[in-house]
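WARN retry 2 of 3 for item q-0093 after timeout on previous attempt; input resubmitted unchanged.
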Amino acid sequence: MNEWLDELADALEEPRISGEELGAVLKLARDVAHRVERRFAPVSTFLLGVAVGQRTAAGRSRQVAFEEALGTVRALVPASPDDG
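OK item q-0093 returned
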């Protein structure tokens, strides 16, 4: 399956997604789907990607841009009852 994601990144002329990024995006989508609204999961990950793109265009490294944007989104996702 990761081969398809690599092929997609190549077709879009974007860097390939790392395993850590993939895991974080999938976890975010899951948390949004379960704690906010299921249909917002793909939209939230799209907005995350837009934010990363804007931050990298402004000069941040992709890693820093991803971590910043992910932190912002995660702060808006309600905590799970299991989180204590």
